[in-house]
Amino acid sequence: MLGADQVRRTVAWIAGEQAADGALPWFAGGQLDPWDSVEAAMALDVGGEHARAAAAYRWLAGRQRPDGSWAAEYRAGAVTAPGAESNHAGYLAVGLWHSWLSSGDAALVAELWPVARAALDLVTRMQLPGGAIGWALRPDGTPDDLALLTGNASLFQALRCGLALAELVGEGQPDWELAVADLGAALRERPAAFADRSRYSMDWYYPVLGGAVTGHAARARLAAGWDRFVVPGLGIRCVDDRPWVTGAETCELALALVAAGQRDAALEQVAAMQHLRDDDGAYWTGYVYPDDARWPVERTTWTAAAVVLAADALSGASAAAGLFADPAGLPPAGMADPTAGAGWPTGPAGTGTP
């Protein structure tokens, strides 16, 4: 388990990559996408850097487009990829709810609620027949009929965080409730609604991480993919047919394991990826183990943030730790897997596997 001093050093490194105007890119001078920027801002809040996290959210708020979307990529404040993606729009709600749990900053919630509301209204407009949500907007403003499982699992969490914010500010959002119910059913029961990207580890664990699949079903899902993706002592593969382990995916798996009640396995994964840690608290993105080579040769704020969020979920150190550790804590009631059993089946003793 990472110590508090190690977490603080990583948070300080993330803070050092933030631009003076609040932008929080992959690394200083690099690209910025809304989803990863929110993840890095959440890590700042875990580390007590609330003003910096709020500045990152305000930077995004200032660039929201009239339809509720953001560009897919920015660099030095300029748009470098104009396309609008649904998971980018949704994730601000997760960050804002996390910020509220971390800091209790009601003024920031009031300021950014209209931004989160407009973004989630766009997400619900992008929902397709059958419950899945299109991954992007076409040039004519209609949703693409391609739906991605990982992005949809993230949007399941985002809509529920949005509903928590709506309760907090006293503005009911019945359309979101209907949307998240349909989306949850699609994630659990309609795999054909999503593009087949099963070779990617995120499609394996994200329905658990996002809270759509819980309890016994979550443990069974994680167990089913374990041998395909987990490389003992190194972390998990990003793609099942490539000898490349990545730090962010490993720590996101740890978050899914915590949510599924498998703390020991989560601890093992966080420990396994520490070979990516640098002396200043930053983390390299990934490692090609047959070549004993880091690749790509970059240290990213979102990788470091995933480590911080996993450590927080395991330690319970911040007031927001339960956001990932206990998905059932989000409204509305009954949105988790209704077939989930009580209690957790035990895995093989001493193996650390689900």
TrEMBL record:
Low complexity bias: start-end ranges: 335-348
InterPro entries documented for this protein: 6-hairpin_glycosidase_sf (IPR008928), 6hp_glycosidase-like_sf (IPR012341)
| Biological process terms in GO annotation | carbohydrate metabolic process
Renumbered to this chain, region (Disordered) spans: 335-354
Superkingdom is: Bacteria
Q: Any idea what this protein is called?
A: Prenyltransferase/squalene oxidase-like repeat protein
Name the species this protein comes from.
Answer: Blastococcus xanthinilyticus
